[in-house]
Amino acid sequence: MLDVTVYDIAREAEVSVSTVSRVLNGTAPVKASTRQKVLALIEKYQFQPNGLARSLLKKVTGTIGIVIPDINNPFFPEVFTGAENALREKGYTFFLCTTHGNFEYESQYLALLREKQVDGILFLGGRINQRHCPPDLAQELEDLNRRIPIVLVNGDLPGSSFHRVFIDEHRGAELATQHLIDLGHRHIGFIGGEPEITATTEKIAAFEQTLAVNGLSSRPEWMLLGDFSIGCGMRRMEELLALPERPTAVFCVNDFVSVGVIKTAFDHGLRIPADIAVVGFDDTVLAASTTPELTTISQRSKELGETSVRVLLQLIQKRRVRKHTVLEPVLKIRRSTVDGLNAAAGQLSQLSEPCG
User: Fold this and answer.
1) For the structural domain made of 169-299+331-351, what CATH number should be given?
2) If you count Cβ atoms within 10 Å of the first and of the last residue's Cβ in the chain, which end, N or C, has fewer?
3) pTM of the model
4) Given pLDDT bands bounded at 50, 70 and 90, which one contains residue 47?
């Protein structure tokens, strides 16, 4: 018999498909004689259930959908790596969907993942990072969440019932700003980020609040937004350096922007951090690879991915899971803010402790 299926085994053994399933998966007792009959047929035909058969038997496919906005920004691949490792350990495979932040692509991928009957979805970026997500896009995700468990990673849809796993970005921005103030900086700028993205607005709010707590204030001409790219960092740093008065330090919305800022500073003959200190956000692989190495806020990206998978699998297993899982950010101090790290090791150790 060619292309033997679970139904063929059940028919020849004169048992139900669910009985074959119980024998294959050991999920429930089966009478010894029946079990032996089924096992003999499995051996006879060298039967191995394929993915579709397993999904019919278990009502699961063993696959997870992962939706990310940008494969080029190291932060998202690092989150994905953490998720992938956790999924492989649990025997799951995955569909990786890169949307480039395009809402239409998101919708297409969501429809595809529903068609593929994935067991759950991790959703990053795009609509869940908008300050004002269009109602129809929010509703689309809500409707799908009633059929398939979805975990929002580092994002939110206010007023929704989604489970979320995220880094406290507000606290991270506080740590970055306070670090510069503690080093003696009183004139600090902010570079990068789109004004309609919550990752930008959250950091700006924390930046300005931390300045205010320390008796300082931001200056509009030093608040230069744009996007999250290296090119944005380069362009905005050119604008900043053209001003008659410039800050002694800048807080960048992410590591990509920081790289552009540092490159432009060097092109203008500036020393970092002697002439201008730079802090990033994310702690991607770029942070330790720039010259000088970048002080930044770690979003614990791989752990973020691993934790998101753990929450999603608990939802798939219909276990009780708290709605919000928050990871604390960590300040990583490097040479872009502090020169002579060895001499300052004691102070730095204290400054870089994770927040309580």
Assistant:
1) 3.40.50.2300
2) C
3) 0.79
4) confident
